[in-house]
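Dear support,

I submitted the protein below through the web form. The confirmation email said the job was done, but the results page showed an empty box. After a refresh the structure appeared. I'm attaching both so you can tell me whether what I see now is the final result or a partial one.
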Amino acid sequence: MRKLKIGLIVLFFIVAAFMILEYSPRALQYGHENGWKTDDRPLIIPHGGAKVLYPENTIYSFKQTEMYDAFEIDLTLTKDDVLMTHHDLDLGLDLGESYQETLVRSLTYNEIIDLIKDNDYPFVRNFEDINGDKPYENITDPLILAELVPAKLEDIFQLYPNKKYILEIKDTEIENDFKKAITLLIELIEDYELEENVIVSSFSDEVIEAFQKESSIHTSTAWGGTLKFVLLSAFNVDFFYRPKQAALIIPVYQELGESYAKYIKLLPSPIKDSFIKKGTSDMTDLGQKGIIEDAKRHNMATIYWTINDEETMLRLIELGVDGIITDRPDILYNIYIEQGIINP
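What the results page shows now:
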């Protein structure tokens, strides 16, 4: 009986210590000045140049969205080691070639541009806007067409030397490729003195860890790192989290893969219910005040993707997130006008 009593007392003090630490304003902090944290409103961050409004990841799309706070850009590596603005590792052209022949890494940048031109700009001609129209189907202006192709990242840096950038490395499958992409990206960021204006992101924890070994430029959590932070926050033990990233770049709603969902089901209901969307067993709801407040304590920004509806935007604004990645920056901009946050 005495041993049980002592055990309960020890357990009580352990729980009390965890609670005190959890609600303490002090926690291990991201160790660099973090200019991605905001106090007045979330940053407006068009997704790939606002990909439902304009042909994505083109100079044209970035010029159309240059009035917003930051660019979110996907990067792939060409055969001649050019970091190019493109979402996928292949060109996605249905030209009868094998998959290998249309891989970005299998072609030089100029070969890619020539291939797009020779096939009459298929992405541009087939692009449908939010009204279902094809505004570029018959465009012939060579100056506009020249901007409606994947761009070199360096060209974007030259056009916008003071912009904020979220740069996602898409080359994650082959170690030599993503290490080369990392080296080239660091060189470009340093050459243009954009270290404080850039967050490097990836879905791959391996890529982010490799990048951090080479540079102290800001990074975001990848998928595994994000899940780790969310679980620590849900269990109220994030006090001991040692942040190496400047930001959580996370979705609100995201279907969990089968392997993750299997383990999530084993969690106690109060924990599981805190970040799983009601009525589902494998769909997250990460737009949670606790996650955002815990990130702030660690000097980390919270940036949510890809938010295209007004209701969720309003919810995240109310929660005090630092940035919203969206295909519809016009909707978020109009919310700020209506709320008197921005004067047009």
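Response: this is the final, complete result; the empty box was a page-load delay. The first strand starts at residue 43 and ends at 46.
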